[in-house]
Write a structure and sequence with these properties.
Mean pLDDT: 85
Largest sheet: none
Strand content: under 5%
Number of strands: 0
Radius of gyration: 20 Å
Structural class: mainly alpha
Order of helices and strands: HHHHHH
Number of helices: 6
Oligomer: single chain
Shape: elongated
Distance between the termini: 33 Å
């Protein structure tokens, strides 16, 4: 098998992972709206505010934020230094295109590592209001960081794929 075939398979796999990431982030947003809607109804209509809504809302918010940021990395809409790169001459612009995914990989790995440490560190502490560990909000952050690193690594295969406006300026 050729290297191009392996790269295209890898890219298709990364694209599928990104699709699932976007779907989970969207589901978390919908869940957040539903949980907060229930909180408002229970508090103001039923006068019986449930205690579980705040920790669940924070978990859903952390999930939507972390996975949404990772999906933004995949689509090159997050952690993309395009304004700076566009202001540079062609040679430094190419260097900036290589520096951007490297920066994303380092930041994503940093977030993934330390979020995982914090997640495991607080597993034994119960959260107030819900039968969840206090550190559960670090789990989506760790997953989002790992996905950012993965998607950043995937961008190295496409360093020569310049945005249309940048490619036109270089010719």
């Amino acid at each position: 098998m050729s290297t191009d075939t392996n790269l295209s398979r890898l890219q298709r796999s990364i694209d599928r992972i990104a699709g699932v990431t976007i779907a989970v982030a969207a589901a978390a947003l919908i869940g957040l709206v539903l949980v907060q809607g229930w909180q408002v109804i229970a508090r103001y209509v039923l006068n019986d505010s449930p205690s579980w809504t705040e920790p669940v809302t924070l978990l859903l918010l952390s999930t939507a934020m972390s996975l949404g940021a990772a999906a933004g990395v995949h689509t090159r809409r997050h952690f993309n230094f395009s304004l700076l790169a566009d202001a540079l001459a062609p040679a430094p612009r190419r260097a900036m295109r290589a520096l951007t995914p490297a920066t994303v990989v380092v930041i994503g790995a940093f977030i993934a590592y330390w979020s995982t440490v914090l997640f495991f560190d607080g597993l034994h502490i119960p959260a107030a209001g819900a039968p969840l560990p206090q550190s559960i909000n670090y789990l989506p952050l760790a997953l989002g960081g790992a996905l950012m690193a993965l998607f950043g690594l995937g961008q190295f295969a496409h360093l020569d794929d310049a945005p249309a406006h940048a490619a036109a300026e270089e010719t």
